[in-house]
Amino acid sequence: MNKHRYAVALRILFHMPVTWIETPPNMGLMEDLRLYCLYEAHYNIVMKRKDYRMASQPAKEQQSIYNFTVKDAKGNDVDLSTYKGKVLLIVNVASKCGMTNSNYTELNQLYEKYKEQGLEILAFPCNQFGEEEPGSNDQIVEFVCTRFKSEFPIFDKIEVNGENTAPVYKFLKSGKWGIIGDDIQWNFAKFLVDKDGQAVDRYYPTTSPLTIEHDIKKLLGVSE
């Protein structure tokens, strides 16, 4: 490398003026410059490859309720993506709870009123709270359909807390729910899921279904 080319290289790499070069270049500095140039070339190649790989990878899809498959009361798989575009009210239910009558009665009222506008109620029996859902799936369905005439679907009995928590409930509980915490407190806890499959509201077991009617109408786009 002659004096002029060396000066230009220094000016480009280190922003040094050409007039700084009055003597033949120091060989140690020349070696540093050579190594620096090699490093820069290698770095640029690596970064371009990294950028290409990142650009070629599809963006990670946000998880939603539609990613899950559950079982109905007969043991058949139900892909929850079949509910795309619906507003979902998901409830862990029990047949022998002190809140059974009021909750099923009001859930029926909500379903009858808004099912044509896109509301679906998904009921998941659970026996973890006071053993108040001890029956088989067939017994549970018969009880609900005979006593309450409920038309919304009853699914397979599951666990909503602990090591055996159903995956769909792990997803529902993963939101930032503040003072409610992670675990389900008792029978008839409620989750409201929007049309994009995201849990947007969570309610205590003691929350009356009819008191969340306003939130349901808002997600459905139903005017007051």
The percent range for strand residues is 5-15%
The N- and C-terminal alpha carbons lie at a distance of 81 Å
CATH superfamily of the largest domain: Glutaredoxin
What is the CA-atom radius of gyration, in angstroms? 31 Å
Topology readout:
Blueprint: H1 3-14, H2 27-56, E1 69-71, E2 77-79, E3 87-93, H3 100-114, E4 119-125, H4 137-148, H5 167-173, E5 190-193, E6 199-203, H6 213-220
Would you write up a description of this structure?
There is one protein chain. By secondary structure, the protein is an alpha+beta fold. The chain folds into 2 domains: 3-56; 65-220, Glutaredoxin, CATH 3.40.30.10. The protein contains 6 helices and 6 strands, in the order H-H-E-E-E-H-E-H-H-E-E-H. The protein has helices spanning 3-14, 27-56, 100-114, 137-148, 167-173, 213-220, and strands at residues 69-71, 77-79, 87-93, 119-125, 190-193, 199-203. The strands form 2 sheets. The protein has a 4-stranded mixed beta sheet with strand order 4-3-5-6, with helices on one face. A two-stranded antiparallel ribbon has the order 1-2. The longest helix is centred in the first third of the chain and has 30 residues, at 27-56. The radius of gyration is 31 Å and the shape is globular. Residues 5-23 have low confidence and may be disordered. This is Glutathione peroxidase. Keywords: Oxidoreductase, Peroxidase. InterPro entries: Glutathione_peroxidase, GPX_AS, GPX_CS, Thioredoxin-like_sf, Thioredoxin_domain.
